[in-house]
């Protein structure tokens, strides 16, 4: 088997939610640069336009759609429209998500009252769960509806290392939502395997993106995080691209229900 065949995504009709920035944009780029037809869905018009222009300039067959993934009817409409446009739907990245607010410790190790469990506002809890868990369910549901009839498809969910471990510097609602999302991936993979729809997760560690107001792009935050990584640096969005391509392509045809951690060894614990 040649690498070109193993990782062939040419022509695949692909949706990436939250595709206007960060990890979603990196997944979209990996697909578009390798010949997939990609629709980016995002709530931020300026980011969406810039992302579509960038990928088109590089020769990509790319379009954008303004979609709020928490608007269930709007999400369904956008999926229907996109599937009709391509005549099929092959790959869906359920990626859009937001941060979970401050953790219960600050980066200097002191208690952070704003992140304490009794400080979490109910409205904020609901918002994070709506974005980081419920929207994953509605995205998988919309994808399955289109993929089942063709007996083929790939659904790739961006979870997080927070799905499987507790966190000091990450907000509690996020950890809970991502754990739910990871289990949803396994459950959907089990159910949809009979329809040849593979459902997997990418679980990144900290990656410098626009999440949480771009906090992880702050050089001081990066420096303080870097020493916690055995590979001595925080992740960049292009570190995710190989796994995105793997999970969308024939190379992963016997992989379903998996969660692939991409974290530079962060979950192993700090080393030298
Ligand atoms: N950056 C990290 O350290 C990290 C680590 C693990 C997992 N993740 C996950 O990766 C995913 C992408 O996050 P990112 O870090 O690339 O962040 P990001 O903020 O750079 O990108 C997220 C994109 O989602 C869009 N978005 C936000 N709300 C939306 C909505 N209601 N509908 C549609 N689009 C919406 C934003 O406009 C943005 O373009 C999230 O699920 C996040 O939880 C991020």
* Radius of gyration using CA atoms only: 18 Å
Oligomer: single chain
Number of domains: 1
Inertia-based shape: globular
Second-tier CATH architecture: 3-Layer(aba) Sandwich
Based on DSSP secondary structure assignment, what is the total number of beta strands? 7
Ranges where pLDDT stays below 50 over 5 or more residues in a row are none
Please indicate the percent range of residues in DSSP E strands (runs of 2 or more): 5-15%
Folded structure, characterized:
The chain is an alpha/beta fold and 272 residues long. The protein has a single domain, classed as NAD(P)-binding Rossmann-like Domain (Rossmann fold, 3-Layer(aba) Sandwich). The protein is 41% helix and 14% strand. The protein has nine helices and seven strands; from the N terminus they run H-E-H-E-H-E-H-E-H-E-H-E-H-H-H-E. Strands 3-2-1-4-5-6-7 form a seven-stranded parallel beta sheet, sandwiched between helices. Strand 1, helix 2 and strand 2 form a beta-alpha-beta unit. Helix 5 runs parallel beside helix 6. The N and C termini lie far apart (39 Å). The model has no long low-confidence stretch (mean pLDDT 97). The structure holds nicotinamide-adenine-dinucleotide. The site of nicotinamide-adenine-dinucleotide has 30 residues, from helix 2 and helix 5.
